[in-house]
Amino acid sequence: MKISVRGVSVWGPGLAGWAQAQACLQGRAEWADQAQIPPPAAALAPNERRRSGPVTRLAIAVAEEACALAGVKPSGLSVVFASANGDGGVIDGILKALSEPGGEVSPTQFHNSVHNAPAGYWTIGHGSIASATALGCYDWSFGLGLLKAVSEAVVEQHPVLFVAYDQPIPGPVGTVRVTKASFACALVLDPDLSQQAIAQLTLCYDPQSTERADMPAHDGLRALAVGNPAARSLSLLTCLAQSRNGSVKVACQPGQLKVEVSPC
C-alpha cells in the first residue's frame, strides 16, 4: 500500500510539537528528557474542555497540529485513535472510589473511562460525522493502528488522521503496567499521491515475520520508545524529520509492518 504523509506532529519529553521534535530528530538540537504539558484543547467548548482529561488533551494537541501543518479541515477527516493504556488516571480514580465506603463513581470519570473518549471529544469539538475508530492493541497499538489507518485510507480513498498516544498509569495498576513518560504523535495520511506531502510511505504487512522492530539509535529516545508504546513511532518519525529515504520495521502482533519512506 502507498500513502502520502501530509501532516505530522509529536508531543513528548523534550518534543513539544513538530518543530522542536524535527530539530532534535535531525540532530540540530540536543534532546532533553523534560516533561512537556500539552496546550489546552482549544477545539473543545468550555464544558467539554473542563471534563476532558490529560490523555484527551495530549491526543487532541498532536491531532490539531498535524491537521494545521497539512492544511486540511479536521471536521472532514476520518480518524483512527490508538492507545495501549487508554486513560489510566481515570481508571485508577474509579478503582479507588470503588474500594471506599459507598463506592460512588463520578459521572465524569465514568464518561472518560471508555477507550474511545479522546476520539469522541475530537468529533464533538469539530462537529465531525466522519468515521472514528479507537484501537487498543497493547504494545503493538502504534503498528496496528497505522496499518488500520492506511488500509482505510487506501480502500476508501479518503484522507485519514491517525493519532497514537499513551500516558503513565498511576496507582497499583501502574506498578505492573509501567509507562515511563507521556508521548503522542499524529499523521495525516492521504491516498492521493498527487497532493503536496512531506513523504510517501509504502507499507507491507508480514504476519509471519519474527524480525525485531527498529528502535532509535539515540540512547534517550530509545529508552522513551521502550517505555511508551506510542513512542515506538520514533524510528519512523526520525525518517520523516530527516527527509531521507529509509526502511523502518514496526512491531505488530502477529508479525511486522515494514514501512519504506520516500521524502517528497
From TrEMBL:
Domain annotation Beta-ketoacyl synthase-like N-terminal: ranges: 31-209
MF (Gene Ontology): acyltransferase activity
InterPro entries associated with the record: Ketoacyl_synth_N, Thiolase-like
SUPFAM superfamilies: Thiolase-like (SSF53901)
Pfam families, sorted: Ketoacyl-synt_2 (PF13723)
Protein name: 3-oxoacyl-ACP synthase
Taxonomic path: Bacteria, Pseudomonadati, Pseudomonadota, Alphaproteobacteria, Acetobacterales
